[in-house]
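Because discrete structure vocabularies remain unfamiliar, we reproduce here a specimen of the format, pairing a chain with its fold in token form:
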Amino acid sequence: MPPVNPDNDPLYRLRHSTAHVLAQAVLEIFPEGKIAIGPPVENGFYYDFDLPRPLTPDDLKDIEAKMRKIIKAKHRFAYREVSADEARELFKNQPYKLELIAGLAKGEDEYGEKAAASDTIISTYKHDSFEDLCKGPHVESLGDIPPNGFKLLRVSGAYWRGDEKRPMLQRIYGTVWPSKEELDHYLWQQEEAKKRDHRKLGRELGLFTFSQKVGAGLALWLPKGAILRDVLERFLRQAQIERGYLPVVTPHMGKIDLYKTSGHWYTYRDGIFPPMREIENDDTENPEGEIYLLKPMNCPHHIEIYASEPRSYRDLPLRLAEFGTVYRYEHSGELTGLLRVRSFTVDDSHLFVTPDQLEAEFLKVVDLILFVFGTMGLKDFQARVGLREVGNPKYIGSDEVWEKAQNAIINAAEKKGLNYIVVEGEAAFYGPKLDFIFRDVLGRQWQLGTVQVDYNLPERFEIEYTGEDGQKHRPIMIHRAPFGSIERFVGTLIEQYAGAFPVWLAPVQVTLVPITDRHVAYAESVAAKLNAQGLRVEVDASNNRMNAKIRDAQKLKIPYMLVVGDKEEEAGAVAVRQRSGGDLGSISVDEFIARIKDEVANYQ
């Protein structure tokens, strides 16, 4: 979908205008072609065509050349409003345009949805001899489109209006930027993104896989990927213990009434796997049996742990933490490697606090998230304060508690000096939140850590603590997850580091490379010594030559390769090579251990 308010966006105007030039160029090459729609999209534009034959890569080159010739004429874009009859006459040979005109005449927008009157005005933009049904906006003239600032990227199939029962059209995607330098940078980013694609690297590095027999969106973690997860979990688990968190473990499912009480059943119902009913001995459903759900959230379970015994103000703050796996029924078309899955693990914690403790505990959570980001080398991020959309019925609770929660978050963001924005409609249904939006090396944004203030679920579950005054009071909850989804966090880290993890995080930190078979025993003895120091080590005892073993280790992005031969064995040493190609020469095993342990300790 195009941006909501494109009027003041120069890139929107540029991309929209270039899409019109694309349509003109295609019709000049294929006069019998039919045109559909051509909106700007993020980083570019596309246009859909019904053409007499499939397009080839050579066609794209010809179309680009034609576009540059059109741009060179520098014709102005002219806007006019027309009646439905005038529009039908103008586009009498364009059936897709005629369908759009019929919709506009009935008060529908270009996507076939009911629209405001201002969005159903029938208007066109004309440049040179080409006129298109369009509400704009556009640049002033073709001269504002840099001839070396655009490129056609690919062709794909697209059903008309996204309906598989309608004609399949050819969609040409392109990108355009104000300068050739910006275009080149974008194209570099795209190529770099392919190299860093976590799905590709996940296979090559042996981290994870997916199986059609297991199911879409259900990741299978391979040994090295499991080690990577374990390193991350142990790192955060230790940080949490040092900050007073208590570990808990909850089941992967719960009774449906639990999620009805919390509100998740009503709010997330479309994304929850179907309910499961108890089965009789004859394998039929028991109509009187309990109904269960795969859990979509961990918080109701943690609330029940809180409620399992009487609580006093002296017990608070109570910080419960779990690496809890949850399940969401994401549509298959939305699944993207580890970044969008149906089963994922959240580094979930719920803090139960008194009103007097809320601000201090919230600030401590923000400090923990910043510590995690700093350790991982994630420096380019922005905080986003997600508020409710006033009047939207999905948000539960009174205006008063929402104001308290929202003020707590904004005050905390101010006190920490965070670079933050405020966005309505981004709150959880039970309370506002502070999300951390990370920008990776390619400029893409990912939501990672989150912290939320919640007055409402404690009220729905009627949990209490005895105050210093001897009276019953309602605690406030803080929901937090520094990683967010571990799956998404790992996928992001893979792409951020291009698979070359820092030494402390690498699944395999060291590969021993014996020069010949007679050096394998010494290599294994060195590996045992490194293992005893808590290092993650492999020995390449294959029949490959030494150089091939080194290349294999470099492809696997292992930080250190230790080559051992006669000289090293006699001296009790190793010849150290880094994955970057640096050769550090021969040093003693003890010296190498001290070096790598210092590197690991200093990184964290």
